[in-house]
Structure formats: structure tokens, C-alpha cells
């Protein structure tokens, strides 16, 4: 509805950009080919997985938080081929001017272009996930599986990237409150997906009003520099601006103190207004710092607020925060606060972190290398034939065939490895063989005493295009994240140079994989 | 329509996330305050500008290409306050459980919450732009100007960032064809904004079917590895896959040759199929390389294709391309091609560049630091009072008051400086005084003989909420980009360490600015 300005055809506005044509051109050229050769309805399986953790320059993540499944399933179950889509496809011409898509194909597509034959198994949103593990498995006629590819990748890659970054930011705060403030510099409409992913990944609240309302999470915010500037321009000042704010929001009074000068003007004015509020029986909330040396200013502000009797006032920090900056700010406060007579622990417990651009763009690594690979296609007799794609890089050879994924918990109850096997396997808490995914001769054996639980990770969510299991809301996804992080070793959760989590294959899958590679090479 | 899964209220689905509540919470808390104090309808002016060029790690841009205005204006003119929006606002509670927004305010907002009183002047899409220059100026009642802030920033920051990256990618190709392939790893729905911005900034075509259709630019694409894998899995092979493609698309046959082994399998099979096509009177298009050493493989592929008589075959390159990688590939081809008996110039002219993730995420710097600052608010007598925001960093002090922007062209016809002045100034090709924006004592004087043209850059696009001038489509924006780049010095266009373009103030604006700073400090 929002990108329709450029092309109007015979008074019909084409609105195709968020529907089924939210895809790459080559999906349609391939589907037409499959249709021409009569293989469009061969059952096939595609796996969605990412190959490596996001790497933000000097520091790479040790785990990801999967997100985006809910909106993907909603898109899939709503998408259908419209007249506008067919009109757009009819318009396309090849080099010689002939139609790219034949009428026969478009007639077929008009009636068969949806996702009503698609099955989807996936790992629920909010869970901790690792490279090369199938996070979503699509089983569908070849045409539908191919048509879904681009949108599936788009719907899962970005939210997983942002939920991962948000989880790191939340970890860096040591249990503090994170507010997502990123809409203004977020990538276009993906601001909404970023809000949702941030809330799943670690932010408690967001400033994004519309998306917060839709998700049932109250939005948060107070005021900007512009409010103080407006009062200054029309013959008032910072104090008048703060008083106005306190008058309208006496029980939610959090003041931005750096429009003029934080320590010389903002904090003294805030204290004046807080005293006025207190005398009227209200408890002020606190202040926000948005520029300068945030750690130092937080200490100095805390000192002044404490001296004035506002030792409970929250101190919100914002301005280009990310996980390492937050970590450094907390470290600096621990070092420097005692010099100013401020108790660092008490101050840290009152900090609130407003995190924007760097979280919602995953600054340092703004895309996840998620891929969607053919792993099986049925032959003419309806028998599934495992598909392989080889590569000069062993780590990039795809794991073939229909698969299951299990998480292995150690005797201490922490996750020790994810195990990828064939769908008909059922590993149990017995002796388990784990094989290295790209070095088949390397492996390890876990005895029954070393394993406390073997948990299947994939859930059947969509069967024949219909949702058959509850995808859950943001709250449930958050609960899954928290439970998973509690069972993840601290070394894997570390912000910098984390310990590598193991993803292994079952012996049967490993054998199939290297047999297919050997067949293709010969 | 697409994010509605999480909250259903009394059978009414809230769909607020792309409407007027696509904004930050604090805009509404400030607007309620302005309304309470009766200053919500004071005419005010806000400027949108960015502070610094994107900096992609080692290499910073020397100019930007502005984009996003068309979709912004469309959103503004369509956005209105709905019952769902009011319901969402009514739901919000403060710390004590009281409603954040009063009924009086919400009643007012319901009838007055749109942008029907907004005026917008802006620099048209596709133009070359520089830091601190107002790219969009909003003149509106304080409430409307504030309500618009977040969405305006979101609508302009990301497209300008991506159009800038795309322009650099296009420059790096030396006039080659760039295809935008980024949807799968683009940030969610911003894939569509990225496609539009890429097409304005430098991509000739995109793989994004829906958005391309809406923009009236044909989408492009051929096939993926999955097609070859599917033929292998169901008892065919790469050759059968290529033959199938050639049969369906005999005049548009471009084959992806790296599924198995580019030089051992892909190119020999492609040549076989090209010969079959040729014998039937068709001209094959070429091949695509998607892995390995793209420069080396392009040379070796060209050699094999030329030996087989296909010296016109295009060679499309893809896989993690960005401007520096493209520059390096071209350099390597110039160095290495003669060793293989391949003419580098002829090969370079046949290259096509498929660019994805790194362009559509602006890899290296994934957000533009665009801001929206109060520069004037009318007082109770209706007189515009210039507003200022000071900072410890002189470069961050806002330029106050209503403004105009002019581009100064040298006697050679190239752009030599952008000049920011007060709206009632009218600089001409006479002697011109240019003052440094943060060092008022530094400036330069241009004599009439040194100036060939003084071009006003801002256009009145929206008056009282209605569009009064044609915003233009993607083709027109592209034409503006090309014209502007042709008049930009090569040193400023350079990919690495570009020459700094001058942005200056008129003496009158500079005097106003530093007088306000001095008043505020005293």
C-alpha cells in the first residue's frame, strides 16, 4: 500500500511489492521451467540455516537467537496470486521482445501459486541456535518451495540477526533494562521487524508506538531536545520546559538533561523540578543523558541527585550504545564512581539503556548469511532422492536429505552440542556418537552418564499450508530465550572471543553426505 | 497488514504499525504537552540533514545521493489517525496506572492528527548532497512537525544511505551494468526501499519482482544452483539442466556455471548448450560466476568462451560484491588477462555485476546519521524565533532559522560549494562570501569570474498537506544523479579518501548562528 507511487496502469494501481511477488525474478523463471518439464509438483525439501555467527568486527557472536517465524508464517498463509501480480508478470519481456512468461504458465500460476501444499518444521522463535543447524525445513512441491525461498530468507535472516544483537546488548547490561529506540535510523519498514526482534532478543520495551501496540507491549518514551529548544525559542528556558513536563506527567517524570549543559544546567534544573514534584507528593522517575562521556556524567549526575535526596532516581543512557560500549560504561562506573563518593553497585542498578541504530542495524555485521538449500527431490517414482551441493570449502557442503535436530544436554544440565541427523533417527540418552560436520573422521562419544537430556528442536508448525501448532507471541519467545540462555555455558555467551559451541552429525547422516559427495565427484 | 499476529482485541485486529503511529512514543507525549500548554499550533520549522558521509571502515564517501522523498510524501499524504490508533493510545498507562493520554487530548488528536497543515521544501531525489545541508525543511504547527519526525527520518535516512552506496558501486564498475540482488539478506520489508534506492543510486535493474513492477523497471534474473541440483537429484545432471534452461529461454540464456566446478564442468557444459542454441539460430547471453576467485574465473571463462566462438558472451559476477571488491576485480583483470591471451578491455566491457547484501545493507556503515532539528518556533505574536541547539562540538551546533540552499558552480562548470543562507537571501553570480560553518572567522571570497552558476536546490513540494510539484519517478531521479555526478569533481567522487566538498554559510546566517550561541551562553 505504501510504495505505489511510481506506476499507475489504466487507473489500476499495482500493489505487488508485499505480496507473492516479494521474491527474486529467477524463482519465477525456474518455476516456469519446472512446469514446462512437468517436475513442478515433485515433492522437495529445502533447509534454511546460517553458516556463521554474526561477526561485528573484532568480536563474533557465540550463539544466535532465532526470530521471524511468526511474521513469515503469517505472510505465507496470506499470500496469494492476484490479478495485479499476473499483470506484472505478463508485462515482462525477454531480449527479443517476447513474453518471458507464457499464458499457459500464468494460467497455471494463477490457480496454483500459493503455499497451500507447504509443510514447515522449524525451531521456535526465541531459542538459542547455531550455524548449519536447519532452523526451518520446507517440504513442498518444487514450485512452491522455490517460490517461497526469497521471502523466507528475508523474513528469517534479518530478525534472527537483530534478536541476536539484542541478546548481546541485554547480556552486556548484566540484567538491566534495555529500551529499543532505533526507528529513526532503522532500515525503512524493517524498523517494525527490528522492534519485534529486539523485544524477543533482549529489549524490555520499545519507543515504536505502532508495532508495540500490535505486539501488546507498551511503548515507552518521554521527551526530546526539541521540547526544551521550543521553550527556549518562545521565551522560556530549560527550567520552564522541565516544569511543563512535570505538570503533565507528574508520576512519570524523566527529564532529558543535556540540551544546554548537563552538570551546569540540566541536573540542577531537574533537581529543582524534582523537589517541586516531591513537595506535591509525587516521586520523580529520573533523568536521561544523551551525549558526552556517559559513564562520567552518570556518576556526576548520581552524586548530585543523591546529595539532593533523589538516590532512587533512574539514569537512562542513550547515544550510539551497543554491547561493548555498555560493557565499557559499566566497567568505567565500577572504577570511577568511588572517586566521587558514589556506590557503583547502587548506580548500576538504576541505569536504563536506550539502544537504537547499532542494535536495529546489527552494526558491524548488517546481514546474516542464512541460506535455503535443496536437500531432497522426489524422483518420478515418488522416492526422495537426497540432493547435495559440493564446494571447495568442506564446511560449505550441504547436509543432504530429510533431517532431525536434537540438543544434547550434559550431566550438568547445560547444552553441550546440537546434533543433526536423519529424520527417522531417534537419538536417546544412551551412548551417542557425534561426528564432525566437515571432517568425518573426527568425532566424540558421549556415554549415557554424560548426557542428561536429548531434546528435539524442530516443531511441525505448518501442514498443507495450515498452521497446526501455536507459534506463540513475543512473551513466549522471550521466555524461550531466557530458558535457553540459562542452559548455555558462560563461555559461549561471552561477548568477545566466545567458546565455540559444537554442532555435530549422526554417523548415518555423515555417511550419506560423504557418499553423495564421492558419487558426484566420480 | 503483515504484523498483526500478536494482538487481537475484541475481534478487532490492530493494524497500527505502518500508519500514523509509525513513530516514537515521545513524540506523542510531547504533543500532548504542547496541546496542554496551547502551543501545539505555533508555526515551527524543522530541518532534516545528515552530519557526516557514511564511513565504511577504511573508506568514507565523498558525497551522498538523496532518496526516499517520494515514499515519504506518499506516506504523509495518506496517513491519518484511525480508531485503532486511538485505541492503542488509550491503552497506554503511566507508572501509577493512570492513562498516559487524556481523553481531551485524544479527542483533539482524532480530528487534528494528520499532516494537512504541513509545508515541505526539499532537494529532489537523485541529487548529490552533502553534510549539514537541509535536505528537507518542514514548516508546520509544532504538533504536526513533531508527529512527523520519526517517520521522516526513517523514510529519508535509509534510502539516502543505500542510494549513496549504490552510486559508489556503479562508479566502481566504470560504467558497467549493476543488478540489485539483495532481497534475501536485506532488512525485512526495507528490501523494497533498498531496491528503489539502489535503482536511483546506480543499479540498472533489480531481481525484486514486486517492487520492480511497481516502479515500472523490469526485474531480472535467470536461475539458481537449486535448479542444477534438482536435475542432478532426479537423475539428470548439469548439462540436462542447462539444456532445459536453453529450451525454455532460448533467447535469454544466461547459465550459472559454478554448481559443480566452473572450469571443469560448468563452462564446458555451457559451451555445449550455446553451440546447440547457435545451430538453431539463437544467440546465447552468457554465464554467471557466483563463487571462487571471480577475476581469475572471469578471465579463464572468457578464454574458453572466446575459443569456442562466443566472444560476445556476457560474464555476470556475484558473491559478496561491493565497490572496493569490484574495483579490485577490474584491476586484477587488467593485470592478469593478458597472461591468458584475453583482452582485458573487451572482457571488462562484457561484465555484469550482481550486487546484493553489501549494497542493500550499506555494509560497513549501516545507518545514516540524519537528524531533524528545530530551527524556528513562532512566538505568541506569530513572529518566528530562531531556535538553536548548542554543543561542546562546534560542528554539531545547529544552523538556526528559515533557510535557503544554493549550489555554486565554478567557472569550469563543476560544483565547488553548497551555500546555506537565510530564506530571504538570493545569492547571485556576483562576488560571493562563503563562511566556514563552525569557524566563523574562516571563509573565502568568490569573484564573479570564478562562478558560472548559482543554483537553488530546494523545491516546494508540499503546501498545506497537498503535493504542489511533481516529485518525479525513479527514471527522473536517475537522470538527476547522472547530471550531478557529471558536474562533481573526480576527486570528490573517488572511492577512497575523497577530496572534501565545501559546505559554507552566508555571512548573515553565520552572524545569526553565533549571536544565538552567545545569547544562550550568557
Care to describe what's here?
The structure is a homodimer of 522-residue chains. Chain A is α/β, with parallel strands linked by helices and 522 residues long. Among the domains of chain A are: 1-38 and 80-113, no CATH class; 166-360, Alpha-Beta Barrel (TIM Barrel). Helix content of chain A is 38%, strand content 20%. Chain A has 17 helices and 25 strands. In chain A, the strands form seven sheets. In chain A, strands 17-16-3-9-7-23-24 form a seven-stranded antiparallel beta sheet. In chain A, helix 1 (25-36) packs antiparallel against helix 5, helix 9 (238-248) runs parallel beside helix 10 (262-279) and helix 11 (294-307) packs across helix 12 (323-336). The radius of gyration of chain A is 27 Å and the shape is globular. Chain A starts with 7 loop residues before the first strand and ends with a helix. The interface between A and B is large, with 141 and 140 residues.
Report the largest inter-chain contact. Answer: A-B, 141 and 140 residues
Q: What is the radius of gyration of chain A computed over CA atoms, rounded to a whole number of angstroms?
A: 27 Å
Computed structural class of chain A: alpha/beta
Using the alpha-carbon principal axes, give the shape of chain A.
globular
Helix count from the secondary structure assignment of chain A? 17
Residue fraction in strands of chain A? 15-25%
Please identify which CATH superfamily of one domain in chain A we are dealing with: Aldolase class I
What's the overall average pLDDT of chain A, rounded? Answer: 94
Amino acid at each position: 500500500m505504501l510504495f505505489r507511487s511510481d506506476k499507475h496502469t489504466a487507473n489500476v494501481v499495482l500493489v505487488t511489492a508485499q505480496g507473492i511477488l516479494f521474491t527474486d525474478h529467477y524463482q519465477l523463471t525456474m518455476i516456469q521451467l519446472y512446469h514446462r518439464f512437468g517436475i513442478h509438483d515433485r515433492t522437495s525439501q529445502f533447509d534454511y540455516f546460517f553458516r556463521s555467527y554474526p561477526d561485528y568486527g573484532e568480536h563474533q557472536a557465540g550463539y544466535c537467537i532465532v526470530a521471524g517465524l511468526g511474521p513469515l508464517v503469517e505472510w505465507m498463509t496470506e499470500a496469494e496470486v492476484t490479478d495485479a501480480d499476473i499483470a506484472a508478470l505478463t508485462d515482462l519481456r525477454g531480449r527479443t521482445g517476447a513474453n518471458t512468461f507464457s499464458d499457459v504458465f500464468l494460467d497455471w500460476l494463477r490457480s496454483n501459486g500459493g503455499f497451500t501444499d507447504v509443510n514447515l518444521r522449524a525451531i521456535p522463535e526465541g531459542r538459542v541456535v547455531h550455524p548449519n543447524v536447519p532452523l526451518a525445513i520446507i517440504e513442498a512441491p518444487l514450485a512452491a518451495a522455490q517460490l517461497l525461498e526469497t521471502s523466507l530468507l528475508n523474513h528469517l535472516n534479518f530478525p534472527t540477526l537483530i534478536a541476536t544483537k539484542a541478546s548481546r546488548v541485554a547480556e552486556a547490561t548484566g540484567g538491566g533494562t534495555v529500551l529499543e529506540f532505533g526507528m529513526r535510523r532503522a532500515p525503512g519498514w524493517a524498523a517494525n521487524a527490528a522492534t519485534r526482534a529486539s523485544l524477543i532478543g533482549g529489549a524490555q520495551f520499545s519507543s515504536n508506538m505502532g508495532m508495540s501496540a500490535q505486539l501488546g507491549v507498551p511503548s515507552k518514551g518521554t521527551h526530546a531536545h526539541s521540547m526544551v529548544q521550543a521553550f527556549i525559542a518562545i521565551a522560556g528556558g530549560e527550567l520552564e520546559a522541565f516544569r511543563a513536563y512535570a505538570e503533565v506527567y507528574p508520576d512519570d517524570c524523566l527529564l532529558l538533561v543535556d540540551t544546554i549543559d548537563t552538570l551546569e544546567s540540566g541536573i540542577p534544573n531537574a533537581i529543582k523540578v524534582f523537589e517541586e514534584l516531591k513537595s506535591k507528593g509525587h516521586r520523580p522517575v529520573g533523568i536521561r543523558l544523551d551525549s558526552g562521556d556517559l559513564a562520567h556524567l552518570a556518576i556526576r549526575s548520581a552524586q548530585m541527585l543523591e546529595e539532593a535526596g533523589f538516590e532512587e532516581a533512574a539514569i537512562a543512557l542513550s547515544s550510539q550504545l551497543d554491547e561493548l560500549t555498555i560493557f565499557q560504561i559499566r566497567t568505567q562506573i565500577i572504577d570511577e564512581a568511588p572517586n566521587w563518593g558514589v556506590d557503583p553497585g547502587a548506580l548500576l542498578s538504576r541505569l536504563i539503556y536506550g539502544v537504537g541504530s547499532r542494535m536495529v542495524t546489527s552494526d558491524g555485521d548488517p546481514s546474516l548469511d542464512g541460506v535455503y538449500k535443496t536437500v531432497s527431490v522426489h524422483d518420478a517414482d515418488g522416492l526422495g532422492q537426497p540432493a547435495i551441493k559440493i564446494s571447495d570449502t568442506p564446511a560449505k557442503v550441504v547436509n543432504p536429505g530429510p533431517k532431525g535436530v536434537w540438543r544434547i544436554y550434559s550431566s550438568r544440565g547445560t547444552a553441550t552440542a546440537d546434533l543433526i541427523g536423519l529424520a527417522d533417527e531417534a537419538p536417546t540418552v544412551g551412548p551417542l556418537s557425534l561426528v564432525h560436520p566437515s571432517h568425518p573422521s573426527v568425532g566424540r562419544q558421549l556415554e549415557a552418564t554424560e548426557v542428561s537430556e536429548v531434546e528435539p528442536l524442530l516443531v511441525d508448525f505448518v501442514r498443507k499450508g495450515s498452521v497446526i501448532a501455536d507459534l506463540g507471541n513475543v512473551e513466549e519467545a522471550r521466555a524461550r530465550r531466557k530458558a535457553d540462555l540459562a542452559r548455555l555455558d558462560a563461555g559461549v555467551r561471552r561477548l568477545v572471543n566466545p567458546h565455540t559451541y559444537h554442532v555435530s552429525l549422526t554417523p548415518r547422516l555423515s555417511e550419506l553426505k560423504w557418499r553423495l559427495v564421492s558419487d558426484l565427484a566420480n
